[in-house]
Automatic annotation (TrEMBL):
InterPro entries: GDPD-Related, GP_PDE_dom, PLC-like_Pdiesterase_TIM-brl. The gene is gdpd1. SUPFAM superfamilies: PLC-like phosphodiesterases (SSF51695). The lineage of its organism: Eukaryota, Metazoa, Chordata, Craniata, Vertebrata. It comes from Clupea harengus (Atlantic herring). This is Lysophospholipase D GDPD1. PROSITE patterns: GP_PDE.
Length: 319
């Protein structure tokens, strides 16, 4: 009887303490203070409105007033840091060659028409700008715009050179970097701990596990940005009738576990920004902001801007 009472009181105390700290994490953790806060994030510069990762896309997004540019980086044969998503150029340029095996001056231009990865059966028709840009060009042209850098490969030289560019252009307070690969994120942090890092996928899974076991409020976190997909968008990218029952169940389960307002509110209270990607319609915009996401990553920066202007109350837009 005494043992049962002891166990019950211990469990009750743990649950109450966890719930208290989940709601008021400042009681245990010092709030992180970043150099910027992003609500409107242009994925690859806005891949649905301009050719992805081009200067034309970045200029268009910045002129619209985007809070952040999201882009991807690779290293060329002559060790130039380029803004490019794929390791192989076949999808983007029609030439089947790895970017790491080509000197920057020899890189082929983008195709005139590229598929929008996160929009079903949608293509973007390019304008005159089909050139793969250098990362330093982005820094030089948009010195005050925060940039989210996805380090696409586990390459020590790439990580070092990106860090050097961030330091050279005085952007440690305007940059976040990382990858879904935990090894890459660790290398980024070790190379320059002054640049905020993203949660890798293993760390995302850890956070979710800690949240559901009640341990998250007690756990220290070095990352400042959580970027996660909204799993339900899979049903918009694939024909639901062609998805197996297990695929539908897994999608529902992942969405249910990840899209939790209590989780987002707790992380936000700790100064960790929560970004949801890649959302391209108003239904998903509304859901993400209703759940308490800090910002939304989109291929259609114009569409997101118009939504935010019409829904200032749910988007946290002042004015």
């Amino acid at each position: 009887m005494c043992a049962a009472v002891y166990v019950l009181s211990t469990v009750t105390g743990y649950v109450l303490t966890s719930a208290l700290l989940l709601k008021f994490p400042a009681l245990l953790h010092r709030r992180k203070h970043g150099g910027f806060r992003s609500r409107h994030i242009s994925h690859r510069g806005g891949a649905g409105e301009n050719l992805e990762n081009t200067m034309a896309a970045f200029k268009h997004a910045v002129q619209l007033g985007t809070d952040m540019l999201e882009l991807d980086c690779h290293l060329t044969k002559d060790e130039q840091v380029v803004v490019l998503h794929d390791n192989n150029l076949i999808r983007s340029t029609g030439v089947s060659v790895d970017v790491s095996s080509v000197a920057y001056a020899d890189l082929p231009p983008y195709l005139c028409r590229l598929g929008v990865t996160f929009q079903k059966e949608c293509y973007c028709e390019g304008g005159e700008d089909k050139r793969i840009p250098l990362l330093r060009e982005v820094f030089e042209n948009f010195p005050a715009t925060p940039v989210n850098i996805d380090i696409k490969v586990n390459n020590d030289t790439l990580i070092k050179k990106v860090s050097e560019l961030v330091v050279k252009y005085d952007r440690e307070h305007l940059t976040v970097w990382g990858n879904s690969n935990n090894t890459v994120v660790k290398k980024c942090y070790n190379e320059n701990p002054r640049i905020p890092v993203l949660f890798s996928m293993p760390r995302v899974l850890l956070v979710v596990g800690l949240f559901y076991t009640g341990l998250l409020p007690f756990f220290p976190l070095k990352e400042q940005f959580l970027e996660i997909p909204m799993p339900s968008i899979i049903t918009k990218l694939k024909d639901p009738s062609r998805m197996t029952r297990s695929q539908r169940v897994l999608t529902w389960l992942a969405d249910t576990l990840l899209m939790r307002k209590a989780l987002f509110d707790h992380l936000t209270a700790r100064g960790i920004q929560v970004y949801i990607w890649v959302l391209n319609d108003e239904e998903d915009f509304k859901r993400a902001f209703d759940l308490g996401a800090t910002g939304i990553m989109t291929d259609y920066p114009t569409k997101l801007k118009e939504f935010m202007e019409k829904n200032r109350d749910i988007c946290g837009v002042s004015g």
